[in-house]
Amino acid sequence: MPPSIHPVDLITALRHKHLTPAIVFLTSRRACDEAMETFDHADLVLPSARQEAIAVALERITVQYPSIAEHPLIPIVMRIGIAAHHAGHLPSWKIAIEELMRQGHLDAVFATTTLAAGVDFPARTVVITQSSIRKSRDFTDLTIGEVQQIAGRAGRRGKDHVGFAIVTPSPYIDLTVLTKGLTGQPEAIDSQFTISYPMVLNLLKAHPHEQIQGILAKSFAQFQLNQRAELLEQKLDALRAQMEPFGPRVCTDWITQWHTFDHARRHRHTRHQTHRSESPEISARLPFLTPGRVVGLSRGRGIVLRQYRSKGQKNSMLTVLRPDNAVTECPVTSVKEIYDRTYDCAETPTYPWCPTETFDRLSHQLEELPSRLPVLPILRSTSIEPLPDAIVQSLGEFPCPTCPSRPTCQKDFVIASRLRQEQQRHTKSIQALRTSLWHRFQERVDVLQKFGYFTLATQLTAEGEWARLIRIDHSLLITELIRADAFTGADPSLLAGILASLAHDDDRPGAFPRISPGLSSLLGQVRKLAESLSPYEDPPLLRADVAALVERWVADPTLTWIGLCRLTTMAEGDIYRLLARTLEFLSQVKTLKSTHPGLAGSASQAITSIRRGVLEELP
Amino acid sequence: MNTDELEQLLAQQPVALLHRLARGRVHRHFRAGKKRLIELLLQHSGQNRVGLESDLQTLIGEQHSQSESGLSHIHRPPAITHKKASPRGAERECAETAVSLSTWLEGLGVPSPQPFVPDPWQSEALSALNETDVVISVPTGSGKTYVAVEAARRAIDNNRTVIYTSPLKALSNTKYTDFSRIFGPDKVGILTGDRQENGQAPLLIMTTEILRNLLYDAASGEIDIRLDTLGLVILDESQYLADPERGVVWEETIIFCPSQARLLLLSASIGNPQDIADWLTSIRSTVCRLVRHSKRSVPLRAGYLHPNGKLTPLFRTLGIPYGHPSQLHPETKRLFLEYEEETLPAGRPRR
Asked: Chain B: nearest CA to A217, how far in angstroms?
């Protein structure tokens, strides 16, 4: 079985169940075109009456849009009553298809899911073949809103009792995405507010600097940020209530007080451990606890075999021979008495820490010991070295050790400090939420000041006055280009070419027509400038092929649309969109007629030369 | 009871019951689907057939008494009862009522022409628009355009200018044609970056970017007569507010929209239309009215078309079971599983 249904079978099935007219959403333009090709030899011909109706309708549309008269898809549309509708087509062709669909002449339209929002015509049935959509090179699952937007095209008011959304699987379809999308609540939408350079210029043109914060506060972005801030404030209130029992005690800020005290204490503690400075009593004993010494432990007596330091132990350790040949390890602190009796004992580096014969002898001697032994009096050395520790000294300055509320402080500290940390975190984020837009605005202002569009008092300079009229993407690059006199003396076609490469943000590969030396050197200049501006503004793609294409269209008024399309591998619809976008950019440059009359003049010339043929059909 | 009978009986039970039965009998039973679960239970039945059968009977009995007594068993904590009982009950009920294809296809056809009567929400939106800004969030294809047209007609009758914006040039063009047909070509104009057609007409169509630019020009002192008499701004497809690149334009437009003009935001169904309305209320002089509903004017049914050409309903219910995405039609479930097994490379788990 094929991995997905064959388009011809699909249409046959739909027709058979009377589910036409239908819109079939496919993954890509290519999928749409390939689906159309499968009908080349299909045996699904419409009755001649309907074919004629389509021809009549098409003729009527052709009067308004002559560019579709010779469209290669017309025969198949007429023969089978199906069409493709995607961004690769000319707008006029899409309008024609929409019109045919609205009049009910077509049985099916293959459209791309990407353009679902632009498909503004209903049908009885919508066919969904995929659960993900290509968004900037990546496939992401359709959102609930998108699924409902797609499915919503089904069911024409007044023409259908019910609409049908039909899922047909293709490889890697995820049915749950679609069922959830069909049955779920659409997602909440979030503000995507960004602060652009033209926005900053225009705001500061119309309003004094002090009012800007108030204007930014009116944005949906700030509204949503405030909502989040309010949530945090509620949390903060709850925290405050929780903090109440931990209010001021003997000292007002006991948490900090205890925190520093505790820290100092701990710090001292760790130092203590690393130095292993034992108490004077113990350290006085150490020289006597040599191998062969008889000592009294809490239970019974023993003979020291060795003295050592162990990493995990605070005190020095002893290995002691106990009665019954037992060898035990114990810290020096567990030694109760040190007797005035030693035996000869040579140390060895391994268990049992002395030669075997010595061991036997010692154990024998241990058993033979009399019940009473003279205790060795050990004098504590008086000169105890005081800890030269600043922290320990400062401990005396803390009131905590003697404070009456010390036990409660000690007990509550863990909870109280966690609460307070949370409180501080929330306060910080609330502040960030309330002021983030303003900070972003201020960043933009700084950049514009640096480039000389603003005076230090945030007044628009003469440059700023005209720069604010450029309200398109990459505005900083365009205004900087104008200031660098990059376009001075450039003829309209060159200007249009450069603006086209700035305007075109599609990375669909296209072929290269031959690029003129003037354009390529100017493009190199633009590229250099764009690179140097990249810390402040994302550089555009600056594709040379689209620049050359538009330059040709403007420079050569005899070039026909078909001729232009032959120059490149780009789809017709893409070329149209490229030229339309270039028109938009040019019309912005045209508004600079009072400050840059020459530039505005060539922009307006370029506009008139672009507006011909297909581009004249639509406003 | 022989093995075949037992298998049949097991197959008739809802999968939740099988899981309860498998508890303590089948290791990691929660990982198994129904088919596999039955297999495993049958394997296990070799060890203690009598115990399994009697447990099964008890569980079935329990379930019957549960569904009959409804909510009457109070001895259980109510939350759990509800959780456990209702989906199972629903599932069983649906299994009985899963629609057949013929029922599903019923009602197909063209309704007899009826005089157009505006939906209640449409009249509500229109009357609200007399006083305040309105946000409309309704499913695609419910008739937002009707509201836009009527609102525009009223404003034009009052000698006010109306601006209609759409996110795409293609949509602008379509609307230009449509509105010219409705209002007459002299009443409708269209503005693009470099062109104006009938730029002094009372109803102007443009993309939202163009309107934003007009508003910026007006704010910085360039007088535009059209903005002075502006009575209504219609922003179609307002869900573009969330567009990563262009959403900001909608916000700018709404912020700088003159206060004497009413705002009409038309949007497809979105999750938080109340937020949009609250936002408008907070920045505009009047309280914004939200009109929303989720019922489509033409009901929608979902189907599943298998690559072999077999058509089945997608869900058990006739319409779309809102809020219950897992109520798939049993036939569809089977076909899709089959499809997945065939198309997915062996040994690769579904993501």
From this structure: 9
